[in-house]
Amino acid sequence: MSEQNSDIRTRVAETLEILRTHSLTTIVLQELERMILNGELKPGERINEKALAASQLVSRGPIREACRRLEQAGLVEIIVNRGVFVRKLKPKDAADLCDIRASMSALAGRILAAVITDNQMATLKDMVGRMERMAAVGDIGAYYPLNVEFHDTILRFAGNERLAAMCAAIDKELYLFRRRSLHVGIGLDRSAAEHRKMIAALEARDAERAAQVFAEHANTGKERLLGALPEADDGGA
Amino acid sequence: MSEQNSDIRTRVAETLEILRTHSLTTIVLQELERMILNGELKPGERINEKALAASQLVSRGPIREACRRLEQAGLVEIIVNRGVFVRKLKPKDAADLCDIRASMSALAGRILAAVITDNQMATLKDMVGRMERMAAVGDIGAYYPLNVEFHDTILRFAGNERLAAMCAAIDKELYLFRRRSLHVGIGLDRSAAEHRKMIAALEARDAERAAQVFAEHANTGKERLLGALPEADDGGA
DNA sequence: ACGCGAATGGCTGTCAACAATTGGCGAACG
DNA sequence: CGTTCGCCAATTGTTGACAGCCATTCGCGT
């Protein structure tokens, strides 16, 4: 029993620690983000403050604050006296965001080529190597998360925190859109090949070439994303 | 008296209309943004919710919601149980933001070179011409707003709304930083010359050259911004 | 006099209640 | 039968109040 007590006390202490550093608003924010990205809340759907407050066992205050942050982040849209709606991205919006994302990738490549260390280079090479082996056997399930980690690592190595934050925000927003098309992992080989080119440019410390290659890689993603979609999809608005 | 009555009624109607479309949160948000950008609230300063609520004649709810949006926008920083503080940009942050801003300028130039119409071209040319005349006589007061309008127009013509919104957000954040150095309008001539180069690249419909020239123009601003500052400024934190 | 702990004042985080607006439903009317 | 007006339930916008935390200050002991 003392063990269970200790367990409970530990968990209570942890919970209190979380509450001390992360207000309910923050917790609700992450939960809402998760629900939107998971598709539990679908684009265009309205978020019922009262119901959500009840389900999360909190008052409407934190819910509203979290929604205001989500609006600024671009994940939801708020119409006065009507409510907050999960953002519905039009293809044009997605294309615009892809262009921005590509520019940011290019910037990351340009910066990284100038500052990357040998250790970092080895880390990236190792990742690319692993991804190539996964691509060879078609292991999509393992390829995808490593691919995400690869790009995160690049941004971390580039050392521009705001750039990383913005890329994360854009990726979240694009994920809203990407979700529709069950992204069949077409082109694992091509993706892996592009990664190799990126590595090559970095290893040559060629900033301009890195920028170019990084942007091209991002644009491949754009084409794949937009190509698998109905060109005119106004969602019945 | 009937005139005054009409006046009052008009203003009441306008006020009601504003309240119907912009909640108090929105109004407070704009007011806070103005206060921060004006320097009425200085970087590092704490925003007192209670006092602000009293001065704005609203409750703390809308204030808090506005602050959460400002946090997501990067203008303030919130520490749990301590309050919300106007963001204090370190030179590194400013430099990072400048790099991002330059990449976005490049993207705007690349897009615009491909889609600009003759009418739009004429509009931009006219602006540049006016700015050159102002630069010639050193009329900083008139040059600055027109310069802002010039860049806004470019972003509008480029047609990527998210890009424009992000640039606006970054500019606001940089303004937080820029405010310290009383930006003496050094280099009006150089700025005007760069504008002419930008126009030339656009007129040639040369996307890559436009991207390059636009980025260089933004980087000029970066150097001017960072050059006029103490390299290590931790603000006594 | 100086350092340390407790009381205190103010402020933030959260909640529950009130007021105002929206959209739907039904009835009356053309 | 279709349309429009008015009522009503539901939901959002806003407010005021309460509880807990933080920083400061006061008092005590050394």
Characteristics of this structure?
homodimer, 237 residues, mainly alpha, Arc Repressor Mutant, subunit A, Four Helix Bundle (Hemerythrin (Met), subunit A), 2 domains, three-stranded antiparallel sheet, 10 helices, disordered C terminus, DNA-binding
Q: Round the Cα radius of gyration of chain A to an integer and report it.
A: 21 Å
Largest sheet: spatial strand order of chain A: 1-3-2
CATH topology heading of the largest domain in chain A: Four Helix Bundle (Hemerythrin (Met), subunit A)
Tally of strands of chain A: 3
The residue fraction in helices of chain A comes out at: over 70%
Approximate shape of chain A: globular
Mean pLDDT over the residues of chain A: 88
Question: What is the domain tally of chain A?
Answer: 2
The proportion of residues in beta strands of chain A is: under 5%
Superfamily (CATH H level) name of the largest domain in chain A:
GntR ligand-binding domain-like
The oligomeric state is homodimer
